[in-house]
Amino acid sequence: LCEEIDNVSADPVYITRMVFGPSGECYMSSKKRDGSGAYTWWGKVDTECSEAFRGQANNNLEVSFGCNSSWICTKGRNNYKMSRNTPPCLKERMWRIMEEGRLLKRVRLLPSNHPSNGSHPSYWISDSKGTLWSRNLDEKLSNYLKEGNDEVLDVAQAGDLSWVIIRPNRFEASDGVSDRLITRLSRFYREQNFRREQTNKRRIFYDSQFLWVKREHKEAAEKEYIAAALMRADMEKLIEEKHQVKIEQMIERKRKRDCLGETSLVIQQMNHVQETIGKSRSRLRHVGSPSNLTRLRNNNVYLQYSRTPNFFRRGPRQLVTQDGRMHTYMGLCDALSRLA
Question: What is the top-level taxon of the source organism (predicted)?
């Protein structure tokens, strides 16, 4: 095993798993940083266990060794293989997990607390249903597994029954664990907590920056929306004003056309009267002086009368001078009526 570790250390690879058993069993896997170059090595295992390991060069095996040459290996979500002397309760639990399609997180075979009472090892299992461990597990270890609200990630126990419990942010160790291992684990968790705090600070900072940018974008979008709405309102108002101007222009043109039509009608009537006068060669006489029809004004016949004011015909019997005084010229009105 030491030679294999030295060989791995000389290559640009790192060890992904290292497992030891109480009877000298060992299993090691390694690969390169880019995921290639997977390599596995094991020793002092029986033939059945060796066949289970063979061909698994992709480093996806989780292996655990127990007392009395017991072993178990899991692969993927819930596939597994185990030795014949695996505890029956553990076999039943893992079979149910596989049948129900649940997740098998981790399985550990541990030294038996009373080896003389049987050949089956102790065990601890974590799956999607929770955790379970054997009744013959060390009492102090069992009590520590029950305590705490945080999840137990892994359990390790040596042949002298000393143990270590690994949790997400802390660990627990029994008497008998080397000071060197406790120091290394303590440093690891301190560094992990420090990295977590720094990561949380960066996350809070980035979240605040993200929220600030998001708020700025939202305010800018609202301003743009309001500006667009105002622009649309101005455009609609301008279009409405132009439409109103067009309507007024159309009304004015219609009024002018009507006026032109009335004027044209009056001119036609005047031309008709002039033609009638020209054809009949009639002359109007009153008080011995001739009168000639010259134009129309306000739909009334306008007469130019010699040595008298200009007259307008308002009725069949009435003429009005330009100064507003009314005069009655019976003969002239009758003649004019006949001409019209």
Answer: Eukaryota
